[in-house]
Amino acid sequence: MDGLVGGGLTAIGLTGGIGSGKSTVAQILVACGAYLVDTDAIARTITQPGGLAIAALVAAFGADMLTPEGALDRDRMRALAFGDAASKARLEAVLHPLIGREAHRQADQAAGRPVVFDVPLLTESSHWRARVQRVLVVDCEEATQIARVATRPGWTVQAAESVVALQASRAARRAIADAVICNQAISLPQLEAEVRVLWQIWQRPVTRVT
What we know:
Elements: E1 11-16, H1 22-32, E2 35-38, H2 39-46, H3 54-61, H4 74-81, H5 85-107, E3 115-118, H6 126-129, E4 134-139, H7 142-150, H8 157-166, H9 170-175, E5 179-182, H10 188-202
Parallel strand pairs: 1-3, 1-4, 2-3, 4-5
Helix pairs in contact: 1-10, 2-5, 7-8
């Protein structure tokens, strides 16, 4: 774990590559007392049947990009977006503003608890960096990411490799981090211990020296 800084934080940005273990770290932070705003969960909600994004997605990509139930066909969209930069940009133009608004609506309900914004594309979305006080990156080797993702239902090694290749590099994520937790060859209790230590440090008030 690198980059320990005190501060009594109220807004933390959490990010990491696919398969890094970011969601596990998010749940540990919740157990520490954080209020979680999960932008991936928001994205899933607004692309369900009748969701806020459905009409705009149909306008941008056509009704054949929906499932028979009227939700976004995530597998088809993933294949399209990660295979074509223009389609990926069009998808982000539809989803990101809606996700951002809902994320901040949810954050307003934190009732004084520190808010953790779980943002997979935080490195690629510079505006998020200005909205949080610290960035925590969960990191591991790309081979580990791919192996983990390939075990998920509906995923193959090739699909995982494609997504990892198109996401921000490990170096780029680490470059924006205030702290990095390496989730590589450690047990869940070890991971939890590292997260809890960081949480305690980040919640300390800043001591000003005059």
